[in-house]
Amino acid sequence: MKCIQLIFRKIGNHWYLDIEHDNPRDLILNPVLERFINKLDRWDQHVVDNIYLIEETGFISSDGLLQFSDEDMLRYFTTNDHFDMTIYISGHKFKISSTLYSLLENKYQLDFHVSLYKFIIY
């Protein structure tokens, strides 16, 4: 079972995932996701480090479950397009870039297309 801590840092007016990258544009978050992370920065520290992705191996509840649109997954694996992928967390709809998806999978050896993950905030 994998447990990955995600760290977001605020630079200027925007939040970025603290992950190795070649181009800062690869880390751009959807405005809805940025507002969500803004709410987690209660003390205005410009760092949110209490978000975890945990691989779900047993009983699967829908709380915090991370899911991607089937159409986006098909497009990701059959094309070289750069596009916004729809992600659902507990039924809430967000978007991330396909480049950020690739960075997450490569950095943390995640298999979003095979395994289920939960989005946990401590």
Q: Can you lay out the helices and strands and say which pair or pack?
A:
Layout: E1 3-11, E2 14-17, H1 31-40, E3 47-56, E4 65-68, H2 70-78, E5 84-89, E6 92-97, H3 98-108, E7 116-121
Antiparallel strand pairs: 1-2, 1-3, 3-7, 4-5, 4-7, 5-6
Commentary on this structure:
- The chain has helices at 31-40, 70-78, 98-108, and strands spanning 3-11, 14-17, 47-56, 65-68, 84-89, 92-97, 116-121.
- It is of the alpha+beta class and 122 residues long.
- The chain has one domain.
- The protein has a seven-stranded antiparallel sheet.
- The longest helix has 11 residues, at 98-108.
The count of strands amounts to: 7
Q: Give the number of domains.
A: 1
Q: Unreliable stretches, pLDDT < 50, 5 or more residues?
A: none
Our estimate of the beta-strand percent is 35-45%
Features:
122 residues, alpha+beta, seven-stranded antiparallel beta sheet, 7 strands, 25% helix
Give a nutshell description of this structure.
With 122 residues, the protein is of the alpha+beta class.
